[in-house]
Amino acid sequence: MQFRNVCIIAHVDHGKTTLVDFLLKQGGSFLSHQHVEDRVMDSMDLERERGITILSKNTSVRIGDTKINIVDTPGHSDFGGEVERIMGMVDGALLLVDAAEGPLPQTRFVLQKALAQGLRVILVINKVDRPDARVDEVVNQAFDLFCDLGASEVQTDFPIIYACARQGWCTPNFEEVPKLLDGSKKGNLSPLFDTIVNVVPPPKVETEGFRMLISNLAYSDYVGRLAVGRVTSGVLKRNQRIVRRGVDANGTDITESFNVSRVYTFEGLKQVEVEELISGDIGMVAGSEKTEIGDTLTENDQMKPSPRIIVEKPTLGMIFSVNTSPLAGQDGEAIQSRKLRDRLVREVRQNVALRLEETGGTDQFRILGRGELQFAILIEQMRRENYEFMVGKPTVLYQTDSEGRTLEPMERAVLDLPERASGDVTRVFQSRKGLLVKFDASHATAISNRVRLEFDIPSRGLLGMRSRYLTLTKGEGLYSTQLLGFGPHKGEILHRSGGALISDRAGDTIEYALLGLEDRGILFLKPGIAVYEGMIIGEAAKENDMNVNPVRGKKLTNIRAAHAELLVTLSGIRDLSLEQSLEWIDEDEWIEVTPKNVRLRKKVLQQNLRSVKREERIK
Asked: Is pLDDT larger for residue 613 or for residue 571?
């Protein structure tokens, strides 16, 4: 049997998961009568709800005597660690580009990794059915991108496939696209299968004994931890004695021998148990509960391990803490520090882009990662596991150069938006220390009057920017970022102008009390919500905090008013999402996360122990 191992590179919402759906259907992975959901590779609830791929996943199709292993990768830069760790498993890549939007930053980020690995790339121009498609320009942009990233002559001589993933067809000849669109000619994905087999080289097979680099982890309730990777040499059989070459927490090399209890390979979306795993195939091995991503499995301890997987360093940090709120334990499980640490350690082991740091305290732990969306996904997953905990404000990880100057991470933000919103968006990004480096209106058409802006902006300036940007563009803007590196510190960025409205006592919010507080700022809570001393109920109109009473009821007397009371209701409540809360809070505040609620609070609850002045509380 021959093998071809490929990954799919694409920006968010360019159609890669939809393409994999039709690759599986036309590759015979499903029975003719079998019901298959759309975006079948997005198996997590969060992936389906948000419409994005978060975790890389393996599948396969068989074309004749060739097995094509396909890895679906995330398209968001916050999950770049998922992409980096699977590059060593594949020999080729499908670069999926939207026929209207063209290559975007995450396309550049992942393609750079693929070209550095020497992978052969097949360019797939998707969504050629869009009325604003500009295929020739996008092909030229893709070629320029290959040249900018230092692709070799072989890599720049890439084949081009024109596709409509949602209709399940493709063609190497652009002249056939109009006939396929109007239905006068029927098409399928056979040209793409043939191109993969002919262009992507088969896996290199080494002559020495069994070796396998672990690129991913899975878990089975029956056999325990499963190590996922590609066999680079030799053959692995069930019950064989092999050696795990890894490192401990201090980076010291360790060696562990174990018996292989189960061996699996991928057939479509199923994990099929087999007697042996041969060189070139991607599969899973059970038998060791200590296997980590980056470890090498070898036939004996005399063989050298493969180089460990290296990913980009984190740029943001966030404190996770045990929930110390007066309402702790009412919505979910108020976990103690040991269980919180175990959960975070488990996440760090599965995601090589995350790191765990001790804080010196017994009940607080620091997680280092790529972006606020990555943190938000982790928090949401823990909420759904019935955990209660608290998180602090995301903070940027600074560096110091040889001359002692402070450096901070800088990012390139690429914005595709309606031209009418460009002025407001530019003003907001410049207020966050963003520098406009490119204004491109070349792909504006009569159908879509859009422009593309590029800003160089500090990472801390992007915190909470996504929701604000979508509001300014009325949901029509596309937003993507790419880490540029570290640059000089840009000075203070004021992310919020107002202080906090803070409850000064416990109870349930009353509409009468909230009506009296509307003039003081913007409220976050409706009537009938349980609050406690130190809990934030809104944003103050002035920069200092304000302690207020949201549970004050109306005094009832037997004296009638001279006039009939009018019906007065609250004018509006700002309901903050988790991502908006992460952007809103300051350094002296926590977000209390439970399965049912997201609450904002001060780190110091007693009002007589904390200052309301901004310059005293933010140090």
From this structure: 613
| Backbone phi and psi for residue 212, each to the nearest 5 degrees, phi listed first | -150, 125
Are the C-beta atoms of residues 543 and 612 closer than 8 Å to each other? Answer: no
Confidence of residue 443 (pLDDT cuts 50, 70, 90): low
Q: How far apart are CA 489 and CA 468, in angstroms?
A: 24
Tens of pLDDT, residues 388-423: 999 999 888 888 888 888 999 998 888 888 888 889
As beta bridge partners, residue 139 has none
Contact 211, 231 (CB under 8 A): yes
* Average per-residue pLDDT for the chain: 82
Partners of residue 410 on adjacent β-strands? 458, 485
C-alpha count within 13 angstroms, C-beta hemisphere, residue 340: 25
Interval 106-120 mean pLDDT:
79
- H helices of 149-207, in order, are 153-156, 177-182, 190-199
Examine the pLDDT at 63 and tell me if it is beyond 50. Answer: yes
Confidence of residue 479 (pLDDT cuts 50, 70, 90): confident
Query: Which long-range CB contacts under 8 A does 71-75 form with residues at least 24 apart?
Result: 71/5, 71/6, 71/7, 71/8, 72/7, 72/8, 72/16, 72/17, 72/20, 72/41, 73/7, 73/8, 73/9, 73/16, 73/110, 75/10, 75/11, 75/12, 75/13, 75/14, 75/16, 75/106
Q: Measured on CA atoms in the order 141, 142, 147, 148, is the torsion positive or negative?
A: positive
d(CA 294, CA 291): 9
The Cβ-side half-sphere exposure at 575, using a 13 Å CA radius, reads 4
Whether 271 has a pLDDT exceeding 50, the answer reads yes
326 vs 329: CA distance, rounded Å: 9
Give the alpha-carbon dihedral of 282, 283, 288, 292, to 10 degrees: 40
Q: How many CB atoms lie within 10 A of CB 471?
A: 13
Token look-up 């309901």 returns 575
Which phi-psi region, left, alpha or beta, contains residue 433 (left: φ > 0; alpha: ψ -120 to 50)? left
Count other C-beta atoms under 10 Å from residue 152's C-beta: 10
| 205, 233 contact by CB (below 8 A) | yes
Q: What is the pTM of this model?
A: 0.71
Q: Which tokens sit at 149?
A: 């990233």
C-beta neighbour count of 408 within 10 angstroms: 19
Residue 36's pLDDT is 42
Tell me the average pLDDT across 508-526.
90
Angle, helices 16-26 vs 190-199, to 10°: value is 90
Collapsed DSSP state (helix, strand, coil) of residue 409: strand
- Which domains, and CATH codes, for the chain? 2-199 (3.40.50.300), 211-298 (2.40.30.10), 316-396 (3.30.70.870), 399-488 (3.30.70.240), 500-617 (2.40.50.250)
**Tokens describing residue 174:** 């652009």
